[in-house]
Structure formats: C-alpha cells, structure tokens
C-alpha cells in the first residue's frame, strides 16, 4: 500500500497467473498451453520478418490479420476486432460494452479474471452458481443485468454448452451484450460465431494462445456486430493504438492460414485428452467431461492440494485452486503422449 496509489489501485485484487518457472525438464501442465510447437508456417514467418521495418509503427488496424481471421470464419472485416491476447480484448469489452448500473452476470466457477476486470472498471457483478454437475443453468440468467459473460467451454471445468443453450441465453438477454469467451472452443465445442448473423447482442472472443499454440505471441480477437466492434475500437484507440507488433501480426496470419496443421494438432490434443481421462479414471479420479485442452479431476480422497504438492516435487506442475467449489480438484493441462504417461505414472506411484 502506498499513499501515492489511486483509490482504484488501492482496492484492486489483481489476477494471479499460473506459475511460469524457467526451470528446464519441468513437465508443465499448469497454464493450458499447447504442448508442442506451433505450425512450421509460423516459424518461417518469424524467421522471414523484416527486422528493418521494426523502426516503423505497425498497422494500427491490423488489416492483414483482420482479413485473414474474417476469411477463416466467413465474416466481414467490420465484424472483427484484434487485441494483444484475448485478455486485452476481454478488458476492452468490460469497459466498452457492459453497463455499470446493473450487475454483470457470470458463473460462480469460471475464469477468475472476470471479477478482476469488474474491480478495475468498477462494474457491479453477480455470480450465478453452476449446477451440481458444474453446468451453466440458463434459466438463472433471466434477470436484469448489465451484460453476461460465459466461457465456453468453461474454465476450469472444461464443460461446454451446446448452441441451442447459447441461443436461449441470447434470447433471454436481447437488451444486453452476451460475451462468449471461446478461448478453448477448438478442442471440441461448437462456436457461437455461426449465430452472429442472428444476434446483434452477441460478441464472441477467441485466441491464438491455445489451439494455435501461440500463447507467447499474445493475439486474441472479438467477433460481433459492427457496432459492438466499433465500441471496442473506440476504447482501443483511447488506450493503445498499436496493441500488436509487426512480427506478431505476420506470425498470426501465417498461423491462421495453416488449416491442415491446426486440424491435425487439435485431433492429437483431443486424443491425448481421452488418454489422460481414461488413465485418471483408472486411478479412481472423477474427471469432468472436458471439451478443452485441460481436465478438472478430483482424486478419490479429494485431497487435491497434497497431490499437487507431491507432483511438484517430481517436477510435474499442475494447477490447484483453493476456492470452495474447486478445492478438491486439480486442473491438469493435456500434454504430449510422453507427458501424459509421466503424469499417470507419477500419480500411480
Ligand atoms: N479466457 C479464458 C477462459 C482463459 O482461460 C484464458 C487464458 N488464461 C484467456 C481467456 C486469455 O488468454 P489469452 O490472453 O492468452 O488470449
């Protein structure tokens, strides 16, 4: 605490990211990164970058990336907004699109950055309990609100909502913006991008951090009605006109164009998730049905924290959340085949 801090800063409870230790030989299953290298097209794009051009500012509109992403999803350029990771895109949504006179609604178990942004932008919020199966109960979202945000698949549960349910949520909330945070959608859920033509209150957020294996590049996007996108651009151009550097934009375009690598990589990840799930279940774990690149799993005795600590001693890093509803679980990112075997062997021992 400093006497120089503003009142907002004094009251913030900042987000705590998963550890990023630099220690070699660690099996890192704690922050939902892809366990293998991104597309070779990205490697070529980075190597072929024109370093001299770094003396110039990048394109503030990220035109080439907007066009590439619009092309992949069958959207128009006016429906696409780009940011420095989807966390930044989310932050702009909180400031641009949620109304401060009514509470923002989101599940009690979800991405823990949402309440942090509420603190930063002084938005009231209400958390809505997931049901006993850790699913979103749509009828609980039929109440006055200043916006709704749902991660689909949800994190840290991995559980996905189907498109009919997303549609019901949108119908119940015609007068507020519904944000679907699809950070993990490519690992087995249906994207709400297909509903954009029907709903002017829908904003979909995606990222290259997970399924494209580019968490270190920091590229995310929002898709929605041009007026919602314009709202985000107004905030962005009042904050940082150049959120993406030239190399990131170039690499991101290369990643989006390599559809074959993307499909193979997602299929391999999903196969490894099934391997990990079966292995954990054979060891007596309860594993929630995941459509993401991680699973939420409960050891048979429910003492997740001591399993977390024992794994850490064997250089295997997973994530433990001490909150009420998740403290008996571990969130484990899906690794390579070798990493999954090492994890299961360590847990078996
Ligand atoms: N949404 C969810 C649900 C996430 O788990 C994450 C990753 N922590 C993000 C958004 C942000 O990802 P990024 O900023 O890397 O795009």
Quaternary organization: single chain
Overall pLDDT confidence: 97
Number of strands: 13
State the low-pLDDT regions, or none: none
Bound molecules: 4'-deoxy-4'-aminopyridoxal-5'-phosphate
Structural class: alpha/beta
Put simply, the count of helices is 11
Shape: globular
Helix content: 25-40%
Radius of gyration: 20 Å
N-to-C SSE series? HEHHEHEHEEHEEEHHHEEHEEEH
Largest sheet: 7 strands, mixed
Q: Percent of residues in beta strands?
A: 5-15%
Distance between the termini: 45 Å
Order of the strands making up the biggest sheet = 2-8-7-6-5-3-4
Q: What does this protein structure show overall?
A:
β9 (286-287) and β10 (294-298) form a beta hairpin. The radius of gyration is 20 Å and the shape is globular. It has helices at residues 7-11, 40-47, 63-73, 86-97, 113-121, 163-172, 226-236, 246-257, 259-282, 304-313, 337-348, and strands spanning 27-28, 80-83, 104-107, 125-128, 147-151, 178-181, 202-207, 220-224, 286-287, 294-298, 316-317, 319-320, 330-333. Strands 2-8-7-6-5-3-4 form a seven-stranded mixed sheet, sandwiched between helices. The protein is of the alpha/beta class and 349 residues long. 4'-deoxy-4'-aminopyridoxal-5'-phosphate (PMP) binds at residues 85-87, 111, 151, 155, 181, 183, 207, 209, 215, 220.
């Amino acid at each position: 605490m400093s006497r120089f801090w503003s009142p907002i800063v004094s009251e913030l409870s900042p987000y705590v990211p998963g550890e990023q230790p630099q220690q070699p030989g660690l099996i890192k299953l704690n922050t939902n990164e892809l366990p293998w290298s991104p597309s070779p097209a990205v490697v070529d794009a980075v190597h072929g970058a024109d370093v001299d051009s770094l003396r110039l500012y990048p394109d503030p509109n990220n035109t080439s990336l907007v066009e590439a992403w619009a092309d992949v999803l069958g959207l128009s350029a006016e429906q696409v907004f780009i940011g420095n990771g989807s966390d930044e895109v989310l932050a702009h949504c909180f400031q641009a699109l949620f109304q401060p006179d009514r509470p923002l609604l989101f599940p009690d178990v979800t991405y823990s950055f949402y309440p942090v942004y509420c603190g930063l932008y002084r938005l009231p919020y209400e958390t809505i309990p997931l049901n006993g199966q850790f699913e979103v109960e749509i009828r609980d979202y039929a109440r006055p609100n200043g916006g709704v945000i749902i991660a689909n698949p949800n994190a840290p549960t991995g559980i996905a909502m189907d498109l009919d349910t997303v549609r019901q949520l949108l119908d119940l909330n015609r007068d507020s913006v519904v944000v679907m945070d699809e950070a993990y959608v490519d690992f087995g859920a249906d994207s709400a991008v297909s509903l954009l033509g029907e709903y002017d209150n829908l904003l979909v957020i995606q990222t290259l951090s997970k399924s494209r294996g580019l968490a270190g590049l920091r590229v995310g996007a929002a898709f929605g009605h041009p007026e919602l996108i314009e709202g985000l651009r107004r905030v962005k151009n009042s904050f940082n006109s150049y959120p993406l550097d030239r190399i990131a934009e170039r690499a991101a375009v290369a990643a989006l164009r390599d559809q074959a690598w993307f499909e193979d990589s997602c299929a391999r990840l999903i196969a490894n998730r099934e391997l990990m799930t079966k292995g954990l279940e054979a060891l007596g774990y309860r594993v929630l049905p995941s459509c993401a690149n991680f699973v939420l799993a409960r050891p048979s005795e429910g003492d997740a924290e001591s399993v977390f600590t024992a794994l850490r001693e064997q250089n295997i890093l997973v994530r433990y959340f001490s909150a009420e509803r998740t403290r008996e679980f571990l969130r484990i990112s899906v690794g390579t085949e070798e990493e999954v075997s090492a994890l299961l062997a360590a847990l078996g021992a």
